[in-house]
User: What shape does this take?
Amino acid sequence: MKRVVIVGGGHAGAQTAIGLRHAHFDGTVTLVTDDLELPYERPPLSKDYLAGSKPFERLLLRPPAFWAERDIEIRNGQRVRAIDATAHCIEMAEGARLEYDALVWAAGGRPRSLTCAGAELIGVHSVRSRADIDRMRAELPSTTRVVVIGGGYIGLEAASVLRKLDKSVVLLEMQARILARVAGKEVSEFFTTEHRNHGVEMRTDTAVECIVGDAGRVCGVRLADGEMLSADMVIVGIGIIPNVEPLIAAGAVATNGVHVDEFCRTTLPDVFAIGDCAAHHNRFAHGERVRLESVQNANDQAATAVKAIAGEAVPYNAVPWFWSDQYDIKLQTAGLSLGYDSTIVRGDPQLRSFAVAYLRCEQLIALDCVNATRDYVQGRKLIGDGTAIDIARLHDPAVPLKDLAR
Assistant: This one.
């Protein structure tokens, strides 16, 4: 293969381009992205960059000169309209065509929008790109009251930053608890308490009827029960929609994301998909097909695709891990808690340092570690190795996890 085209300028796409050159691939590498920026880190957007404590230049994955020095062409501001899998080419929205020998689809996803009235008002924001955060930051000086819709990591991280900036924050979650899709009740309860202690008004079991505006700008949020919340800004964090429409139109199999095999290959010839948009069978999800929205998954799937393109295919088999920073709290997660049947808490949540172990049939499958890095590091290895552990001693935080291996 002499021509590799990568679609998407996030972690997955950038790491693919970097990995190809590290693997001494001497063909052409072209990265196509609808973003106007060079590849940059996304996790700090809802944290340090929103807070204004880290300039954008420090978010760049590589210095500007890096890409030219390695002969990696980056086409900014271009969107792929169609894929011709038979002719091995992609067509841009502007009409230009680009041929490939291997195509790596790393286009990620776009923020899921509210479907209610008022969702398009000025002052309603999502968190996905630098441009999103720049718009929010421009409005912050005139913003006092913020309503955050969505109790996942994005919403919680944004709420923590906004409280540090002394904004009034109300967080709304439709489900009975925050983080319900990704963590157990112990973690949900801990973060609910932390946010309330920092002044965030937390509301669960709460649905939004519409966003209310005045002269085209948001001024409030009306709830399903009729209550009206005043707001100068609304932040929506209710998940993403995978950007896979051109792949589907070209004939790729997809459900929640495009289907890939253990080498990140789609059902289209010489077309790979990686990162947030790729649905793969994962052994840490008990073989179920999942999409993982994390930097770890993006980087590891990029490495898998690079090896396959180089003719040295190695199946994807990485331990999933995630993190979230809120206030002075670091949450680190190892494994996937899908299908757990019991939990064990190591430590005391009131001391703000503890871990929740997720078990399935008395096998450790995941850990949520709150200010407990040692448990995270040791537990991640145990989970990755599938090591059986002494469950009876798991409750005791004084016993290192590594000493529980049988």
Observations:
- The radius of gyration is 22 Å.
- The domain at 3-110+240-309 is CATH 3.50.50.60 (FAD/NAD(P)-binding domain).
- The chain has a mean pLDDT of 96.
